Amino acid sequence: MKTSYRFHLRSFGLKQKALVIFLIFVILPTFGVGVVVQYKFNQILRDQFINSTNRNLDNVTNQLGEQTKMVEDIANYLILDPDMRAFLRTYPLLNSVQKSNLKRNIEDFLTFQLMSKGYIRAIEISGYNGNSIEMGEPFSGNEETLERRAIERKGGIYWTEGYELNSDWNGEVRILSLFRVLNSYDEITKPLGRLIVRLDEASIINLLEKGSFKDNAGSVFIVGPEGQVILGSKHNMPEDFKPDAALLSKLVSSKSNFVTYPVEGKRYLTLYKGMENTGWKVIAMIPEAKVDEEFRDVKIIMVVILTAILLLGLTALFGFHYTIIRPILRLKKETNRVANGDFNARVPVDSYDEISELNRKFNEMVFTIKQLIDHKYKLELRERESELKLMQNQMDPHFLYNTLDMIRWTARLEKASKSSQLIEMLSKFFRSSVNNGSYQTKLSKELEFAQSYLFLQQHRLGDKLKYSLYMEADIMDALILKTTIQPLVENFIKHGLDRKKGINEIKVRGYTSADEIWIDVIDNGKGMDPAREDEVRSSLQSGEKGGNREGAMININDRLSIFFGQGYGLEIINTSAKGTWVRLKLPCTKAESLGGEQHEQ
Q1: Span between the terminal Cα atoms of the chain, in Å
Q2: Does the predicted model carry a pTM greater than 0.70?
Q3: Which CATH superfamily is domain 373-587 in?
Q4: DSSP 8-state assignment for residue 474
Q5: CA distance 216 to 285
């Protein structure tokens, strides 16, 4: 099975392998991680929502606790207030002035409470001695049952459930009230009167809803110690729903203070907080659908991000195909062309990455192979041409060398030293001009060839010709092609001599520049006019042969560039009526075994 798997994988092309790798290592992991992240993220969002709602519910429960505690503190203060005890006493009776003063003091206190606590709608005090105070909004209605329950508390605080009363100002309204029998401070069991503090139910519900939810997203209930519903809002809830004992039992037994509770087929996230001073439980219920809706945008963003990642992965696959696989396949196709002998194969290079660098090197390699094939033929052809031109009208080299040596020794025997020296230089010149199995030589040998030619020409021209040869010692063994410097010197003698000048001078200087060898041939001859200069430069660039002078320079340039490569060859630095400056550029290459100049001495 394993062998079969390897066989099928090896038989895949680059496209198939890239697709399989992308599917296994990108698509499937991205999708799997996306699903896990989405699930975990939903849990985190739900937990954050529950924690946030818990904090909000805790805050509003504390606020409601503070409000109810302040109302209870008012009731406790009124019991201990001397003015209130005096106002409600049955004996001794109060005169009108005393009664008016006490009533004004109590009303001032109650006015402050009504003005500072907006949730209190009215405060009513009724004494069994017939004295009474009513502050705030006037209400009317049957509250006898509530009064009886308060009396049963025997001075304890009794919080009513929400109920309706008729307001002289606003008609039917729902309120929540505190009832308390005010007992005598001296005789604790003796009732003196009754206190009623009426709170605005809508204000309390608004406090709970706005503090716990956004945009009435849920419902809130206050359940008393005996399980009775004190008040509640029923947004998104059935009209007849009330928190029952089963829900309260689940909430009390829950360790996390929240449960999921079903109501008529819908599930509600239910949280609660207790109030110590009243014994109430504040219950908040939010539909699960609202919780999901709360984070719908975030979930959509997560889905969009996951989709974007997959799209980016697909884009990466296409990019990988077009930037890596496709160039490799194209390179393979062009390699097959080269293998079949087509050296015109080229791969386009349109960037600077590693693939393009590989394509560039491939193009250079094919070009170099083609160039080597072409240049080898051209170089041998040019060397044959040069040798044939130099050997035209000449006798057999060995016979010529031996004859010249014989004449030189005869001149010495006859004590004709100058004639002997001239014959020796002529012998060196002919010996250096012939390619004896090699067209390469040392720079020192080529310089000696040019020197022998100039020596003979100076004896011919006399004082009209002056020359100097200079070469750095480090480059004397450098590699150069034969008959490279001498033809330039010969060009000057044949075409550049200015008869109007008393002395015609030519200089040959060889030195290193960076990693190249530069050989400058400078004369003070006639130079070239601008038209001829343009023609020569154009011929050097195109390689087309011109006249004798241009043909020699083109021949040298072609041979050097063919042998050493592009960037090497002949360059015209300057030419004018004051002379010409030509430069040869060679690489710093040391000549090794080059073949000899074998002949009989």
Answers
A1: 83
A2: no
A3: Histidine kinase-like ATPase, C-terminal domain (3.30.565.10)
A4: G
A5: 11
